[in-house]
Design a protein that fits this description.
Strand content: under 5%
Mean pLDDT: 82
Distance between the termini: 38 Å
Number of domains: 1
Structural class: mainly alpha
Oligomer: single chain
Helix content: over 70%
Number of helices: 15
Low-confidence stretches: 281-301
Order of helices and strands: HHHHHHHHHHHHHHH
Shape: globular
Number of strands: 0
Radius of gyration: 19 Å
């Protein structure tokens, strides 16, 4: 299916963006959290701007994927973003990945394939009623508020995880809004630019990006990225079913679905033990940059 190809391109672009943005956000002053000064610092970093360019590319690929396939199929594919992010980070920091990490990447990929085969998301409509959107927005607002309040009470990895989940919810909402906006585009440019979901996509997308920057600053990639990708997949499946009446197979297929999810969880736990996920190679790269003019120039660019 063409939507799967676009979804894979989206996952790759988002993984690249996460690595680049993590590199820039991790070097930002800690007193900039939840302040506009964080963005003022980041916009002066070329590596962060490159990450934003990848975010823009991912948005285009995602719009194409959602226009050609159900939300419950497109969004779960983004689970492979963390494995892709670690592979890209290994190249970025010139770190050789151990066999155990490669095996974990394979486990996550295989688990995703099994889960999608079992669930077989299909069907659905391209538009939801205003009544359903009101209920969805109220539920989303309450969920986001609870996550943000909890995140403000903790620091480090717990904060990164909570903010990652908050960003995931925002991105899932963005995807649902984008799908309905793309459906309006098929009617004509006038209908596309007059639908409120188009502008809701922009607002939700910017808010999610802001939450993600704070999540990346608060902790390591493995704390925020699993919550971001898995949370996005599960919440998007809920949006797909509730808003667009998309179908997922149940019955004995649930056994295979749970098995696939279990393999994904196992793979993520193993990936959490990777030096790249813990941020150790990044620290070594930064130490080497202080000793080598070549690496220092690379980090600053």
């Amino acid at each position: 299916m063409i939507c799967v190809v676009f979804a894979l391109l989206t996952a790759f672009s988002n993984a690249m963006a996460a690595v680049l943005q993590r590199r820039a956000a991790s070097e930002a002053p800690t007193d900039g959290a939840f302040r506009l000064s964080l963005f003022r610092y980041l916009v002066r970093r070329r590596v962060w701007l490159a990450g934003i360019a990848m975010v823009a590319a991912a948005a285009l690929f995602q719009a194409a994927a959602l226009a050609t396939g159900p939300v419950a199929l497109v969004q779960p594919i983004f689970i492979i973003e963390l494995p892709l992010a670690l592979l890209i980070a290994g190249l970025f920091w010139r770190t050789r990945l151990p066999r155990r990490t490669w095996a974990s990447v394979a486990a996550v990929t295989a688990g995703l394939g099994v889960a999608l085969f079992a669930a077989a998301p299909s069907g659905g409509t391209d538009q939801a009623s205003d009544q359903l959107w009101v209920l969805a927005l109220i539920a989303t607002g309450g969920f986001e508020a609870a996550l943000l309040v909890s995140a403000m009470r903790v620091r480090g990895e717990p904060r990164a995880a909570l903010l990652g989940l908050a960003a995931a919810c925002g991105y899932a909402l963005t995807a649902a809004l984008m799908k309905q906006a793309m459906a309006a585009l098929s009617v004509g440019p006038g209908a596309f630019f007059s639908t409120w979901q188009l502008y809701g996509t922009a607002v939700a997308g910017v808010g999610s990006l802001y939450l993600l920057q704070n999540a990346l600053q608060a902790g390591t990639l493995v704390a925020s990225q699993p919550m971001l990708t898995i949370g996005d997949a599960l919440i998007s499946a809920c949006y797909g079913g509730l808003l667009f009446s998309e179908d997922i197979r149940f019955g004995w297929w649930l056994v295979l679905l749970v098995l696939g999810l279990g393999v994904i969880v196992f793979g993520y736990i193993e990936l959490a033990r990777s030096p790249l996920a813990s941020g150790q190679p990044q620290a070594r790269a930064n130490d080497g940059a202080s000793e080598s003019g070549r690496l220092q120039h690379s980090a600053s660019s």
